[in-house]
Amino acid sequence: MTFDYTDCDLQTPSASADSLSLTNLTSFSYSLKAGQDDAKYNPPQFAFLNRSSDSGVNFAEQQQCYLQFDVPIELDPTVLLYYKHHKLLPKSSTIRQELERQDQLKGKFSIYPCGLIANSIFNDTFSPLTLLTNPSTTYTFSEQGIAWPGEADKYAETPGYSLDDITPPPNWALQYPNGYTNSTPPPNLKTNEHFQNWMRTAGLPTFTKLWGRNDADKLQMGRYQVIINMNFPVRSYKGRKEIVISTVSWIGGKNPFLGWAYVAAASLFVALAILGTIRHMIKPRSVPSSSRCVLSSLK
């Protein structure tokens, strides 16, 4: 199940979470397992809630998208939650100008963690799924066990510098408005699996990253709601953001790439065979004849 929530913040803001102005989602897809792909479902809907004027609201929860969708069949564990989008890193010259304004390239501070990828980390967050017919029923995803084995070995628990010598990346300013302090220390990158997943760069601009997993509980049929805290901007480079809920079997998750690759290769070989046959019919190769052979006399 895939739901595109990019334009949620363009909707008319709702008055409150209790009176949502829901709009039908136009970009979504259901890909159900064989034998159950005819299951009925209602169109997903979303609503935007702007809480920036509410006092005491965490900065990361000010722009919220309420996404409601049907789960038409029961899903057995493992159930996986992904985010998917098209990423384009900002120009390095733009980052350099921003860093110079903050004295971060003048030898005064070291950026931790450094690099354009770390600076542009995906920071939308997702709430547990709430069953709308029974709000006390929630489906939670663990944020542990989502990174590839060995990824944690690439990172350290602490930066190895004094807090006075390091500063967060520019795009982390809202999370660390006063920089790194004793009350807001640098993140433990060795245990931060969301960071580890993000730093493992994808080969293509459109990709999915694992956000959470549930290895124990079935996801029951019903209509659910997830609250998405929208913090990651994509509109400036015409990107898209999607949430993906999927399952996995003993042979892995559903991925049509290999099948389509076989179809494409077979189609290419058939086309080459047809072209070769046509050429042979138009200009056939002459059959060799012994009369055309000239044998020198043997001495």
From TrEMBL:
The chain crosses the membrane at residues 257-278. Belongs to the CDC50/LEM3 family. This is Cell cycle control protein. It is found in: Membrane. It comes from Meripilus lineatus. Its main location: membrane. It comes from the Eukaryota. The keyword Transmembrane helix applies. GO terms for biological process: phospholipid translocation. GO terms for cellular component: endoplasmic reticulum; Golgi apparatus; plasma membrane. It is a multi-pass membrane protein. InterPro entries: CDC50/LEM3_fam. Pfam families: CDC50. Keywords: Membrane, Transmembrane, Transmembrane helix.
